[in-house]
Amino acid sequence: MASASRFVRFRRGITLPILLFVAWEVSSRTGLVDARFLPSLEDVAATAKRELIDNDLIGELGFSLMRNIAGFLIGCVLGVGFASVLALSRIADRLLMPTFNGLKQISLLAWIPLISVWFGFGEQAKIVFVALAAFIPIVLNTYDGMRQAPPDLLEVARALKFNARQKALRIYIPAAMPSIATGVHLGLIYAWLATVGAEYFLAVGPGVGGLVIAGRERFDMALVMVGVLVLGLVGFTLNRLAYALEAYLLRWRPKQTA
Q1: What is the residue range of 58's domain?
Q2: CA 42 to CA 256: how far, in whole Å?
């Protein structure tokens, strides 16, 4: 029964992509859309084969993933730590949270000029940009989760005279784990989006974003579409990994039955 349900969800999920690919191919083959702007799937496949064999597409993707993972891990560690300080310290909350609430309203792309001045255009700047993208959702979700710790458990902690470390490890962090998992999930997704943005706007060094830029500059739309498809497939894979990571972090919760 469960396998049948998964198959139905899978079939529904691939219906729209298949229809889009069919519309793409028909539009290109019939001349409904100029092939210079929308190349055929055959041309895109040939370009992908060329990039894999001759131009090290896997290596380009590897550079992008390394930036993504490094930035995500930095943003995750700093985000959970910063949110913990805000949630557990009333003084820090009053001093820092208003400023953080103001800064988070600034578009992420608006930080690129400052990051490029402070860190240059190399790997360091790209990783900082990715870390910032992951940092914000992780802080917000972790902070909300810790602030919603059950009052009865906090009362028990006061009765047992828990110190700050015991409260954090035994009450606040376990209570906030669902929110932390959600923040990590969002952080992983935003980190990949920021990786693409960093490679596009801080265009120094290898990466899939550089591949898209090269296709644009040469007006090679097949190469651009290869880059776009690779970015989409990796983003989809990271989203599935984020779901798996969230399920792992929350594996202690009892499963809900319908």
Answers
A1: 43-249
A2: 46
